[in-house]
Fold these 2 entries.
Entry 1:
Amino acid sequence: MSKLETLGVLAHRGGLIAEHPQLTVGVVHAVSRPTGLELELLARRPLDRRTAAERQADIRAGRTGPPPAPRRLLPAFDEGMELRVGWLDEDGRAHWEFGSWEGSSGDFFGGSEGPSLRTRLHFPPRYSHVPVVLAWPEIGFPETVVDLPLPDRATVERGTVSIWDAPLDGREPPDGLTYRAEDAPLDEPHVEAGRVAAAPRVLNREEDAAVVLTRLTAIGDLLALEVSSVARGERARAASATAFPPRDPTRAPGAALAAVHSRSATWARSHTGSAAGGYETFEASTGYTVRRPAGNTLTLLSTWPAAGLAARCTTVELDG
């Protein structure tokens, strides 16, 4: 069973865990399962405001940036050009993990953002707390240990459940609901500086097809969501057949999502997404941004016609 098919336990509420002139690092997503800890981090470097001529002058003068940070936990022979992430065991030894990496060049197109790195890592099972170690000595970022609080073993074992067995409290959309598209796409905010405001949950499900809210992060007046769409058997084949041909770029390969306010449902535009499908399984993961409602509840409408899922509404309590 893939991780997308298993609801874990929210392990950390997110937010910045390291701030340094050369780098900030924040927790985007952290879920504990008996099989291990899934941790997603996002690191940002400051925007380089020098002109091209100033950069060339600094290179010619040998001014290449801050001096390298000392190494205590990294092995002396380790060399890299990105952030390294690991955890410390009870003896204080560092275990470095290798995750998936996604980078942004930041100011390459003349924007106001510096370059960023996003990584998803899988640690062994950890309970109660985990000392996470961060290191990027080449840019002057010192080795930093952050002790993250985690749920205990009993909580993780009790809360981990298959998405096919998890509670489902969706309902049919109200009569007279009107539908509209978001006036303009909402970019994903700085999710690593926000707070995870809801635990993972199933939004919609029929036999062999499910839509899962895997993350909901509150940042100011916006909510950043990650939604997984999972199908098996005939439903997987049907979803795969319609997911990959050219389509409306504002639509995701899996389920469609709308935020419901009063009698109006506003379709969310996806800003990130990935999908993989075959003869027996189909899985998609999609990122959305919606406007935060005035109160502490968010009503989401999800539908996945390609997999045979009709529209259902789910009310999510926002904590944070």
Entry 2:
Amino acid sequence: MIWDVYELDVIADDSLGRFVARWYGLPDRPRRDLDLPGVPALLPDPLAEWHRVAARYSLPLSRDHVMIDPGDLVESGGLVRFWVGADDWYSYAPGAFDPLVVENDTVSTGVPLSRFLVYAAVYEATYTPLHGLVYMSPTPEEVRQVRLRLRELDDPLWRWPDPGTRYYGDDDLLGHLGPDRVVLAGRHRDALGRFDGLGLPWDWDTRTV
């Protein structure tokens, strides 16, 4: 299955499911209902949809950050924390259908949960890939050379949180490029070959580890 970068150019209601199916392939687990006793009041529909999609894959969709299990969601200080990393965490105020996401319990991202979860899925696919390349502290010319082999994603979501570091893609590839990093992910090993001719000293290359 060829993944088409254009699917992420305009984020829509079905973008999460379409991206996951394109990037990871067909689900390897049967569809099942979520067991959510006492939780629905804390679980907006977009987050419930994330867990329904994730339940159909044996490979966790969130591997860098932890996506809190629905049964473990709790409200504290008026917020419900749902996605937690080593140095950051994200939450929302319960009660709204599609609440704005709050970073570190203090700063509103301005991004509604439904869109943020698409961002989270792409972030996880890019930063915890089965096939990937990482090069830190590139020169501007090195970033430009990589960028020429990709296509910038159009939706404004992909310029959050730092417009200087943006998401790119192409068939079977995702990239997060900025002045301090080149992070690339491929759906399969051969997709990374597009960058071999650049001669970059990769800090991490899944083909050699």
